[in-house]
Amino acid sequence: MAKYIAQPMEIEKRSFEIIFEEMKQEDKERFSEEERMIIKRVIHTSADFEYAGITKFINNPIENAMKSIKNGEKVYVDTNMIKAGINKRVLERFGGELVNYVADEDVREEAKRRDTTRSVVSIEKACKQEKIKMFIIGNAPTALFSLMNMIEEGHVQPDFVIAVPVGFVGAAESKEEFAKLNVPSVVVEGRKGGSTIGVAIFNALLYMLDNNR
């Protein structure tokens, strides 16, 4: 009979040990301890060590994110997958809530009228009507472009953004342009990213906060 580790916590513990052992020395050294914890969780989610080289921390994002989470700020997420993956039990301890307006009737109608995506209109609603200050964009480059427009037009000044849309059309370009705004953010360069990466980054922040309570 094959021998294997069956205890969930032991599996996770050993996984993080392997990740740290296999990380390049330069990657271990150039990140702060908190940044390393985020990078390790992203690698744990993806089994892809390239994320250590393409994940950028812009304008003190961790401190800004933790402050907003502790203040119970709402978090806009662009997919239900992100909503499902984030540890809501921990988030709710701080009074936080995940929101998305893509399925709202007014968003549907406005997107149809303008012949644009619901992601674009949903971001506009989050910024103009709901005054959301934290965003996790893991799927739609159009959502990130829309958020950039809202920032440049003065409708919102985000406290923290996770900018990790994935894909071949607009993903790399949207993240490259967003990084120029110097908003406190974690950005994955290039085509890679996705909802699971956004979840990994935000959960890492939640677990750090929860362990420090």
From TrEMBL:
PANTHER family: COBALT-PRECORRIN-8 METHYLMUTASE
Protein keywords: Cobalamin biosynthesis, Isomerase
Pfam families: CbiC (PF02570)
InterPro entries assigned to the protein according to its UniProt record, in alphabetical order: Cbl_synth_CobH/CbiC, CobH/CbiC_sf
Source taxon at top rank: Bacteria
GO terms of biological process kind: cobalamin biosynthetic process
Annotated metabolic or biological route of this protein: Cofactor biosynthesis; adenosylcobalamin biosynthesis
Protein name (Swiss-Prot/TrEMBL): Precorrin-8X methylmutase
Molecular function terms, GO-annotated: precorrin-8X methylmutase activity
Family: Belongs to the CobH/CbiC family.
Annotated ranges, domain Cobalamin biosynthesis precorrin-8X methylmutase CobH/CbiC: 10-208
